[in-house]
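Researcher: Here's the sequence for the chain we discussed earlier.
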Amino acid sequence: MVSACVALVMAAGSGVRLGGTMPKQYQDLCGLPMLRRSILALQACPGITAVRVVIGAGQHHAYRAAVAGLDLPPPIEGGATRQESVRLGLEALAATPPDRVLVHDAARPLVSQALVARVIAALDTAAAVLPVVPVVDTQKRLDADGNVMAEVSRDALARAQTPQGFRYAPLLDAHRRHAGVACTDDAGVVALDGIAVATVPGEEKNFKVTTEADLARAEAHLAGSAGQRRYVSATGFDVHAFATGRRLMLGGIEVPHHQGLSGHSDADVALHAITDALFGAIAEGDIGSHFPPSDPAWKDAASDRFLVHAAERVRVKGGRIEHVDLTIIGERPKIGPHRDSIRQRLADLLDLDIDRVSVKATTTERLGFCGREEGLAAQAAVTVSLPA
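Model: Thanks. This is the structure I predict for it:
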C-alpha cells in the first residue's frame, strides 16, 4: 500500500528583502510566478500524492493569479510567523491525515525530482529528514564590531534546505507542544521532542531566493549557464478511430465532419501528438502518464488542457519551444481550408509566433486504416531549447 505524502508549500511570507510591489513568491521568474514553479516541480514528483499551499492574509488575489489552471485544493491561511503557518498547515490536514508530509519553501523553485525522491525514501527508516549541503567556505566568529574572534571548524557544519520530510503525526504533535518556542525550521521543532533528524544530500541549485542577486542567479540557471543552451528534438504520434455522435476536434478547433474521433478525452489526435512530443523533449513520460485514460477526470476533456500543461512543464525546466511541426494523416476531412486556423490556435496555446508553427496534411494513398477512412493519425516534431 502506497503511503500518502502531502507537500506543504510555505508561501505566507512577505519577502521584503527582494523588493518589488508584491511578495517574492508571486513575482515573475522567467515567465512564471515563483510559487507556480515550486508547485509544478512538486506536482511532477511521483512520490507526492497532493500539494497544499499556505499563504498569508491578504494574498488570496495574488495566489489565484499565480496558480490559475492548476488542480489544487483551496489555500490554507497562515499565521504571524513561519512556524505558526506550518502548524496551521498541518492542522488543516488533520481531518484526513497523511502518513508523511514534506514542508517546502515556495522561494526554492529549482527543487529537483531527485532531491524530493531522496527525502521521501529516507522517511522509510527515519521520522524526520533534512536535505543538507556542505559548508565549503572557511567560517569565522565575529565580535560586535565585526572583528574576527575565532575560526569555526566547518567539519560538522551543513546548510539546511527544504523540502524537509517528516512522519506527519510526530511533526504535528511537536508543533502543538512547542508553539511558543522559536525555531528556525521544522527539523528544529521535532528535535525539541528528541526526534532524530536524518540527512540526505541537498543540491546547490536548490537555493532560497531571498535577494535580487538570488533572483538573478535563478534566472541565469533557467536561462542556461552563461546563456548556453542545448537544443532537443522530439516526436509524438497518435491515432484515433472515427466515431459517430462526436464533434471532430483537430488542432484545438472544431472541424466540420460527419464523424468525430473516439477516445476518453475529446480525442484531438493532433494535440495529443504535439503533447507527447513536448513530454519527450524534457523526458517526462507521455500523455498517458500525466493524464491516465482510466481517470474519469479526463473523460471528454478538451485536449488543449493537456497541451498547455506540457508547455508549462517545458517552461518549468527553463525550456523554450522553438518550433512545432504537425502532420495530420487521413483522407478526409481536407485540412487545407482549416490549416491557418489550426496554426493560429496552436500558436495561441503555446504562446508562440505563428511562424514557428507548421501544419501539414497527407494521405496514405488509400492504404491502411486511414486510407479506408476508419480514423485519423497525427505525428508531430518539436524543437525545444533547454539550459545547458
